[in-house]
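=== Structural record ===
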Amino acid sequence: MDWVKSLKEYNAAKGKKQGESEVRGAEMATFTKLYSDMKGPNKQKDKSYAVIPRFYYKLPSEDEVLLQKLREESRAVFLQRRSRELLDNEELQNLWFLLDKHHTPPMVGEDQMINYEDFLKVATEAGPKCKPFFTATIFAKLLQTDPYGRISIMQFFNYVMRKVWLHQTRIGLSLYDVAGQGYLKESDLENYILELIPTLPQLDGLEKSFYSFYVCTAVRKFFFFLDPMRTGKIRIQDILACSFLDDLLELRDEDLPKDAQESNWFSAPSALRVYGQYLNLDKDHNGMLSKQELSRYGTGTLTSVFLDRVFQECLTYDGEMDYKTYLDFVLAMENRKEQQALQYFFRLLDVQGKSYLNVFALNYFFRAIQQQMIQHGQEPISFADVKDEIFDMVKPADPLKITLQDLINSNHGETVVSILIDLNGFWTYENREVLMAENNNSNQSESGSHQDQDI
């Protein structure tokens, strides 16, 4: 609305008939009306504004200490209230007793079953905290092939236990969410794991002086896999959805088998292994790794070209790598099949920064493999043959370019990376048929010896 034009026309028509004071009063009234129409309804007079929910709450700034403290305390009270709404151990035991009491015969093997009618009977006796678990939807989800339309009592109870554990863990993690926005920063997760250590019997033998290195080792796995874009924060929802927290809390088991400890990144033996390797590589004992020191990693067959790219693209300090950067490197090397590891390697292999690998990029890295073969007295393999094999394995959408998504979709990303960065990896690929035959012969020999023992 052109209220300025309307006001002028009104003044022109009225000014001839009225006095100056009357004109000014009328002018103000008209201006107020036109301005109010333009701005919209009056929030104080319009009752609908009182019931419209507020969608945005501005976070207190750093200098608003009192508001920050108030927000922190109110969140803590809210989380405590939510925690009290969860089933405790005594209530879970009572639930199991009621399920056992109202089970519906006959049993399936050693597993007790319950039909929907008895399921509802348990719901009426279990109490209000259990009510969310006793729904038709949950019963239908757990219903499988029982001819009587029943579900397993044990399966239902495990479902309840899992849900309670997830809520408890979410509340526990949320207490460390300083921003209150549903994610944890690196320092938040460090505090969570540091305070968790005394509750994990499998970590009882760790020296307190090693705690900071252990926490760093544990946190890096979360951030390497859950924060591949390096935003510096992880959603609590993503932490709960992945299996890492299960692996970490598995250390509560005092009788955890040795092989399970060795395969668990968060176990004491695993953390000590990784840190021990770092110390062994650090020949000058300055707490950092140079390119020369890192070249001894694993079998010592990583190419110098690849190591150059590691030190170009990864965070270093005066040309040397610290323990945190080393952990990312180890996680990528030990998990080459995973998408996040392939993303890590692709950034290093994309030497031209084009977001794809072409023949030039492949040749750039493979030449270093050829040079290593010559140094070891081996006949170098033709690049043209290797290039064709790589493109045949990956089958990219564009026959001249390999993108990260092509590498992931092919399920051969690990092999391609190994061929280009590691002489030992290339040798293993080239001799895969011989190695497979040797493994088969070895397995047959073991099988034959077992049969002889049985005889």
Q: What stands out?
A: The mean pLDDT is 89. The chain is about 60% helix and 0% strand. The longest helix spans residues 432-454. The CA atoms of residues 49 and 357 lie 57 Å apart.
